[in-house]
Amino acid sequence: MTPRELKTQYRNERLAARDAIGPDERIEKALAMLVHGGDAIDLQPGEIVSGFLPIRSEVDIRPLMARLRERGARLCLPVILDKSTIVFRELVAGAALVSSGFGTAGPGPEATVLDPQIMLVPLSAFDSTGHRIGYGAGYYDRAIERLHQKGLSPRLIGIAFDCQEVPSVPAEPHDVRLDAILTESGLNFVSEVIG
């Protein structure tokens, strides 16, 4: 099986496992993530944090984002501009959200575009070394690469349920490792793996 085929298999299996979590249980797991990450994520007042609004069976991190805002974060959400590009627009209290592609919503074109310093990254599967499998479109990989080209190194925190973990993600050259993973079991920092 090629790395791409294995990624597709893992993506399908882990998304099916995530889909099997009932709505009430999903809420409980999201609240556990708030408890584990709300005060533990290292954050300086004024730092820019990108979050996301849930699609399909993703965890709803709005309570976590609200806690980070209380701690002084400036929040932003991803918005799809075209088939290959997302930008992060500032999320201010009371601002209207518009359809932003991929089944989600985000701030409209009048919102300020920001470069996140901390990114809460959705995913379909992950492993303990910080490799992730996204949804297959590569939006986050390209967005992170653009930030790196600007000389920026955002801290990447993968957001997932425990059931989305796999033994080992076949990493490809364009893949960017996460710095930490937040699940309902806790905030786990990824250590450098040599070898």
UniProtKB/TrEMBL annotation:
Similarity field: Belongs to the 5-formyltetrahydrofolate cyclo-ligase family.
InterPro entries, sorted: FTHF_cligase, FTHF_cligase-like_sf, NagB/RpiA_transferase-like
Molecular function, one GO term: 5-formyltetrahydrofolate cyclo-ligase activity
Keywords (A to Z) from UniProt: ATP-binding, Ligase, Magnesium, Metal-binding, Nucleotide-binding
Name the UniProt record assigns to this protein: 5-formyltetrahydrofolate cyclo-ligase
Reactions catalysed according to its record: (6S)-5-formyl-5,6,7,8-tetrahydrofolate + ATP = (6R)-5,10-methenyltetrahydrofolate + ADP + phosphate
Source taxonomy: Bacteria, Pseudomonadati, Pseudomonadota, Alphaproteobacteria, Hyphomicrobiales
Pfam families: 5-FTHF_cyc-lig
EC id: 6.3.3.2
Domain of life of the source: Bacteria
Catalytic class of the enzyme: ligase
Cofactor(s) annotated in UniProt: Mg(2+)
SUPFAM superfamilies: NagB/RpiA/CoA transferase-like
